[in-house]
Amino acid sequence: MSTTLLQELQGELRRLYIAGSDLAADDFRLNRIQPKLAQLGERAPVFQKLAEGVAALTEPSEAEARAARLQDVSLLLNSVLSTQGATAAGSDLSNGNAEDSGLTGLTTVHSYRQLAEVQNALSTSGGGRYEIVLEAHRNGLFRDLRLFPFAMKALSDPYSELADYAVRQILPSYGPVIVPYLLADMNIQGGREEERRLEVVRALGVDSDDQKSLNLLVRAAEEGSDKVRAAAIACLGLHPDFEDKLIEWSLDKKKPVREGALAALAVRNSETARDRLYEAFVGKDALPAAQAIEASPKEEMLERLIPLYEERLSQEILGDNDQKSKDKLWKTLEPFTVAFRQARHPELERLFLDLISNESKYPAVGRLDFSENLRVMSQAAKYLENTNTEEALIALQGLEEREVAYLPYAFHVTKRLRTPAELYERYAGSGIALLRAAVTKKAQARQSKLIETLRDEVYAYEGYVRNRLPSDKIIAEWDPRWLSWLIDRDDLQLVSALAAPTNPNNPKLLKYLERQIDKSSNNYYGYYIFLALDEGGFDEETKYELLMRWMENKDWKKIYSIYHDEAQRLLQLPDRFASEAADRLEPLITETRFESIKEEALEIIHALRRRGAEAESNT
After folding, report:
1. CA–CA separation, 232 and 198 (whole Å)
2. Domain check: are 53 and 145 in the same one?
3. What distance in Å separates the CA atoms of residue 18 and residue 194, rounded to the nearest whole number?
């Protein structure tokens, strides 16, 4: 259909923005457009939504409600027009039939107020936009048709992390149906935005029956800028008709073009493709070929590379062991470490197990610099860590004994294959662990690495926030003796992570927390102190007394704010403590130099007094 009707509606809405939304009531122009939209709505739900919005706009209503409806209809209309504009240039979807576009799975159920913040975040610059978009995606707002054009617009966002998030998360969530939209108006001479478009296309794939999209990809592959060519070529790996072209492009004089072709050949995985990929791997394009294999690690390709890696690791290196020789050796080994990053294969497991158990059999590793040696051995250790076998555990424990840097790998497997008590005994308890308690540099390094490993185990990241594990997991998976061990080492963060209501070391924990309160009133420490009190199962009276002790130990002459956590804890005190808490707080604020702090504290004090009085009147 023609977009004339939609453009006419846009003009009328623009008129109402200028003249005022009150004039929309019984507007004859809108009443003339509404039935036409309703007729189109029989075939496409989005037009039905527009018809309903126009009808609601012309009905009698409060001024504020009508203004909000005008915003809703305008946003939906602009989204539809933006979508059509993206496909008008030679696209089969340019007829505007939303049903045929495949986007009918999207809704228009959210209010303008819900969408406006996201729309603004993707139309402006400045801080805080990334978090707004992340939250909107998590909450499903991008399933609203009106945000689809803004999701497309995010590809060109000046904040690269936001644009990359659109590539990784938002746009792929729409599915392959958006591929024609991504390709229709692509500027093949463009730069990073077009690369991002093609990254999404590659992730979603192009339907073999979608000849128009394939033709656009081939045109971009042949005539585009170097980066666009490479990205477009990488999208063609699943289509056998282009294999000869991919071989040809893999020999192109321009490196980006060769890289794109190798990436596509790794996906192809035909015998011809593997031969060319192997040729590149052992030639001048070793790293690009390795990166292609990493992204698509096929079994047949791995079976060709694993014996070659073993051979190179086993070779005796003669001559000087100078830096130039080390660099040359690393150049021959690094591509394997790249190619095997995502690989899983029984022969690779066998090689890595032997490498860790019998490192002397592989002299090339010993000739590397420390950092490069660490990369090779860490990759092997990481692989074995994920196998969860007894053989892997024995090998990793031996490696840990030789070099403390590998302790986390052995620790993780020990934790999965042994009981909590056995884990504690090995790393902190009796026997060999006690011998390590001697104050030596190696023992200190081992203890530091162990504490670092524990921190990663008991705290989990959720977005940008690191939270401790739930108490039931702490009780089930961790020996209670860890708590005492960590108290002795004065690691407050880990102590709070392992506090649990059933821990027999809680009396020791309480004394430790009291010492922490007397030592510092910094909010960083306060968070972990009161977390430990909450998770340790202490009674309300104990927690109340320690909170007041914390507040009384503050230097009120110097503080410039009452922390939010402190204010919340005071306001959430049980009613029976409210009056006494107010009496203890009031003398403290006479020492403060800042009126704002005094005002905030007085608000808390008055709130506590009211609650205390209400509690007394109810008894």
Report:
1. 6
2. yes
3. 37
Q: Are residues 131 and 22 in the same domain?
A: yes
In whole angstroms, give the CA distance from residue 376 to residue 351: 12
428 lies in some domain: no
Same domain? For 2 and 84 the reply is: yes
Identify whether residues 25 and 130 lie together within a single domain: yes
Is residue 307 assigned to a domain?
Answer: no
Q: Are 333 and 312 in contact (CB under 8 A)?
A: yes
For 225-260, what is the HEC assignment?
Answer: CHHHHHHHHHCCCCCHHHHHHHHHHCCCCCHHHHHH
Say if residue 239 is in the same domain as residue 114.
Answer: no
147 and 11 both lie in a single domain? yes
Does a structural domain hold residue 360?
no
- List the end-to-end C-alpha distance of the chain, in Å, as a whole number: 75
Q: List, in sequence order, every residue forming a beta bridge with 465; answer none if it has no partner.
A: 462
CA 448/CA 454 separation, integer angstroms: 10
Point out the domain boundary residue: 252, 267, 296: 296
Mean pLDDT check: name the lowest of 93-102, 165-174, 439-448, 556-565: 93-102
Whose structure tokens read 């972990």? 528
Judged by DSSP in three states, 75 sits in helix
Residue that wins the pLDDT comparison between 193 and 108: 193
* pLDDT attached to residue 110: 75
pTM, whole model, 2 decimals? 0.75
> Could you tell me if 517 and 523 are in contact, meaning their C-beta atoms sit under 8 angstroms apart?
no
CA torsion, ordered 346, 347, 352, 353, to nearest 10 deg:
70
d(CA 216, CA 197): 13
CA distance 398 to 396: 5
State the total domains in the chain: 3
Nearest residue to 46 via CA among 69, 12, 26, 75? 75
State how far the alpha carbon of 512 is from the alpha carbons of 499, 518, 527, 575, in Å: 12, 10, 15, 28
Residue 392 has pLDDT above 90, yes or no: yes
pLDDT, one tens digit per residue, over 403-428 is 999 999 999 999 999 999 999 999 99
Closest CA to 531 of 519, 518, 516: 516
> Rounded distance, CA 76 to CA 41, Å?
14
Q: Which of 260, 304, 299 is nearest to 281 (CA)?
A: 304
**Residue 277 token pair:** 């990929």
Instruction: Please name which of 361, 389, 364, 392 lies closest in space to residue 376, comparing C-alpha atoms.
Output: 364
Query: Does 202 reside within a domain?
Result: yes
Rounded distance between C-alpha atoms, residue 37 and residue 56, angstroms: 13
94 pLDDT above the threshold of 60: no
In this predicted structure, what is the pLDDT of residue 463?
59
- Helices and strands (H, E) in the chain, number of each type: 36, 2
For residue range 246-265, list pLDDT tens digits in order.
999 999 999 999 999 999 99
The 8-class DSSP code of residue 513 comes to H
Domain that holds residue 195: 186-296
Q: Give the residue-averaged pLDDT of 49-74.
A: 81
Do 77 and 32 share a domain, yes or no? yes
Structure tokens given for 312: 């190179």
Q: Which residue in the block uniquely carries the two structure tokens 């009698």?
A: 60
**DSSP one-letter string for 458-474:** HEEEETTEEEEPPHHHH
**Same-domain status, 128 and 225:** no
Tally of CB atoms within 10 A around 313: 19
